[in-house]
Protein backbone atom coordinates (compact mmCIF):
# COMPACT_ATOMS: atom_id res chain seq x y z
CA UNK A 1 0.00 0.00 0.00
CA UNK A 2 1.52 3.33 -0.99
CA UNK A 3 1.11 6.70 0.76
CA UNK A 4 -1.75 7.75 -1.50
CA UNK A 5 -3.76 4.64 -0.73
CA UNK A 6 -3.03 4.99 2.98
CA UNK A 7 -4.20 8.63 2.98
CA UNK A 8 -7.32 7.61 1.07
CA UNK A 9 -8.10 4.88 3.63
CA UNK A 10 -7.50 7.29 6.51
CA UNK A 11 -9.80 9.88 4.90
CA UNK A 12 -12.49 7.25 4.36
CA UNK A 13 -12.10 6.09 7.95
CA UNK A 14 -12.52 9.66 9.20
CA UNK A 15 -15.71 10.04 7.13
CA UNK A 16 -17.09 6.87 8.68
CA UNK A 17 -16.16 8.00 12.21
CA UNK A 18 -17.78 11.40 11.58
CA UNK A 19 -20.96 9.70 10.37
CA UNK A 20 -21.08 7.53 13.51
CA UNK A 21 -20.46 10.56 15.75
CA UNK A 22 -23.38 12.36 14.07
CA UNK A 23 -25.58 9.28 14.41
CA UNK A 24 -24.83 8.94 18.12
CA UNK A 25 -25.28 12.69 18.72
CA UNK A 26 -28.74 12.55 17.12
CA UNK A 27 -29.60 9.38 19.06
CA UNK A 28 -28.58 11.06 22.33
CA UNK A 29 -30.76 14.07 21.52
CA UNK A 30 -33.74 11.82 20.79
CA UNK A 31 -33.10 9.84 23.96
CA UNK A 32 -33.03 13.06 26.00
CA UNK A 33 -36.38 14.11 24.48
CA UNK A 34 -37.97 10.73 25.21
CA UNK A 35 -36.58 10.79 28.74
CA UNK A 36 -38.03 14.27 29.33
CA UNK A 37 -41.41 13.12 28.01
CA UNK A 38 -41.29 10.07 30.28
CA UNK A 39 -40.49 12.22 33.31
CA UNK A 40 -43.36 14.59 32.43
CA UNK A 41 -45.70 11.61 32.07
CA UNK A 42 -44.64 10.19 35.43
CA UNK A 43 -45.16 13.56 37.10
CA UNK A 44 -48.62 13.88 35.52
CA UNK A 45 -49.51 10.34 36.57
CA UNK A 46 -48.31 10.93 40.12
CA UNK A 47 -50.33 14.15 40.31
CA UNK A 48 -53.47 12.42 39.04
CA UNK A 49 -53.04 9.51 41.42
CA UNK A 50 -52.53 11.91 44.30
CA UNK A 51 -55.68 13.82 43.34
CA UNK A 52 -57.66 10.56 43.11
CA UNK A 53 -56.52 9.45 46.56
CA UNK A 54 -57.13 12.79 48.22
CA UNK A 55 -59.52 14.83 46.06
CA UNK A 56 -60.18 17.42 48.80
CA UNK A 57 -56.54 18.26 49.40
CA UNK A 58 -54.91 21.24 47.82
CA UNK A 59 -51.93 20.99 45.46
CA UNK A 60 -49.80 22.13 48.41
CA UNK A 61 -50.55 18.76 49.94
CA UNK A 62 -48.06 17.27 47.50
CA UNK A 63 -45.21 18.94 49.36
CA UNK A 64 -46.68 17.74 52.70
CA UNK A 65 -47.85 14.16 52.04
CA UNK A 66 -48.75 13.61 55.71
CA UNK A 67 -51.12 16.58 55.90
CA UNK A 68 -49.15 18.23 58.68
CA UNK A 69 -48.99 15.04 60.74
CA UNK A 70 -45.65 13.43 61.50
Explain this structure.
This protein has 70 residues and is mainly alpha-helical. Helix content is 73%, strand content 0%. It is built from one helix and no strands. The longest helix has 51 residues, at 3-53. The chain starts with a helix and ends in a 17-residue tail after the last helix. The mean pLDDT is 83.
Q: Which short descriptors sum up this protein?
A:
1 helix, 70 residues, mainly alpha
- Structure summary, number of beta strands: 0
Q: Roughly how many Å apart are the termini?
A: 78 Å
Helix content: over 70%
In round numbers, the mean pLDDT is 83
Write the layout of secondary structure elements.
Elements (H helix, E strand, L loop, with lengths): L2 H51 L17
What would a concise description of this structure say?
Helices cover 73% and strands 0% of the residues.
Amino acid sequence: MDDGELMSCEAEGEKIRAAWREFFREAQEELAEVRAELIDSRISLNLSLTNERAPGRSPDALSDPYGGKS
